[in-house]
Design goal:
This protein has 383 residues and is of the alpha/beta class. It is 32% helix and 17% strand. It has 11 helices and 13 strands.
Length: 383
């Protein structure tokens, strides 16, 4: 079990503690959830009107399980296949390790932003990764996902988070919003459940190819990412490039070869042959870290935002026309902020984003960035 600089234990809040502190809530009514006295494999509301199963200790807190099942079945179940098949052939494993050795060349400010979201929290803090799993990028994060994948601690919908108002001390949301048809609903839910004065960290692709895991509805520019959170009431503290132009251009080029130019079997072979020799190009992103225009070609943008201490809710004056004028007026500010305030997490590492060589070994990438293995279970697991 890890310790922070003050010598406190660093682990995620267990399921029993989430229940005891009345943080875990019914996604339909927001009543606190309790363990069923006569059955240890179910959670119930105090009035016993609604109940939810526990499967291998993981609560399945879906208001509409059929909708969730349909979502996971989209794109021929590609999300399930990706999240549950982490083993690779020997050749691909070697390629993955070489890719991890180079990394994605994220900015130092981006790593600092991720750490800031989880800094100076109490020992019993509840920190939630929306869309988290199958890897665990920090032992304090409770992984929440719509499917019961490895390392997922709570199965729930981002549109109906199973937490009481103001119950969560930090949110992490990475490579998720592009997959939601209504991302503003998920952001509004994070705002509702976040404790006033606390932080959310989000990283979302900008220049990345379509990757349906299981679907893909939009990417975000730097200013679009900011506005998404500001419209729901958040105050954006930092925003900028997570992963830079060199990564984006290499990724798009290899994917173009694999899928269309020439595409087919030949395209897949060519993209794999070119993937490793072009890895050193990613180091060019070190030259763009302080470039104020880097965000216009970034692979991924990030932001660090705070829920105001006196939460006022969504901004009713943020009308579309006013936002467009504001975007033009503040274009210089957005450019300046993009020079290094990147995400502490990785960009979306779906197979389609890595052009022919498959998903990189995320445990290696995360260990390089965060200083620990992403696949290791924390000692204090929900029970």
């Amino acid at each position: 079990m890890r310790e922070n600089r003050r010598g406190h234990r660093v682990h995620m809040l267990s399921l029993d503690d989430q229940i005891r502190l009345r943080k875990l809530a019914c996604p339909a009514t927001r009543q606190p959830l309790l363990r069923e006295p006569s059955r240890e494999d179910r959670l119930v509301t105090p009035d016993r009107q609604l109940s939810y199963p526990l499967v291998a200790g993981v609560p399945i807190l879906l208001a509409d399980p059929e909708v969730a099942a349909g979502y996971l079945a989209e794109q021929a179940g590609s999300m399930v296949a990706e999240y549950t098949q982490l083993r690779r052939s020997l050749l691909r494993s070697v390629a993955d390790r070489l890719t991890a050795a180079v990394g994605d060349q994220r900015t130092a400010d981006s790593e600092q932003a991720f750490r800031a979201a989880l800094a100076d929290l109490p020992e019993d803090a509840l920190c939630v990764s929306v869309g988290g799993g199958p890897l665990r990028i920090d032992p304090r994060l409770v992984n929440l996902n719509i499917g019961a994948f490895p390392n997922v601690d709570v199965v729930a919908d981002a549109y109906r988070l199973p937490y009481a108002d103001g119950a969560v001390d930090a949110f992490h949301c990475e490579a998720v919003l592009e997959h939601l048809e209504e991302p503003q609903r998920a952001v509004a839910e994070m705002y509702r459940a976040l404790c006033p004065g606390r932080l959310v960290y989000a990283a979302t692709p900008f220049l990345q190819v379509f990757h349906g895991y299981p679907s893909h509805f939009q990417n975000f520019t730097l200013i679009g990412h900011r506005r998404l959170f500001e419209r729901e009431g958040f105050t954006v503290l930092q925003a900028g490039v997570c992963v830079g132009p060199a990564f984006a251009l290499r990724d798009l080029t290899l994917n173009a070869i694999r899928t269309a130019l020439p595409g087919g079997r030949l395209g897949r072979i060519l993209s794999r042959l070119l993937a490793l020799p072009t890895l050193p190009l990613l180091w060019l992103d070190r030259l763009t870290r302080k470039n104020p225009a880097a965000h216009v070609l970034a692979s991924t943008t990030y932001l660090l935002a705070r829920k105001p201490a006196a939460a006022a809710g969504p901004n009713p004056d943020a009308r579309p026309r006013a936002r467009r004028v504001g975007a033009r007026r503040r274009g210089g500010e957005a450019g300046r902020m993009s020079s290094g305030s990147g995400a502490g997490g990785l960009p979306c590492w779906c197979r389609a984003c890595v052009a022919g060589i498959g998903t990189p070994p995320l445990d290696l990438l995360f260990s390089r960035v965060y200083g620990h293995s992403s696949t290791s279970e924390p000692d204090h697991h929900p029970s």
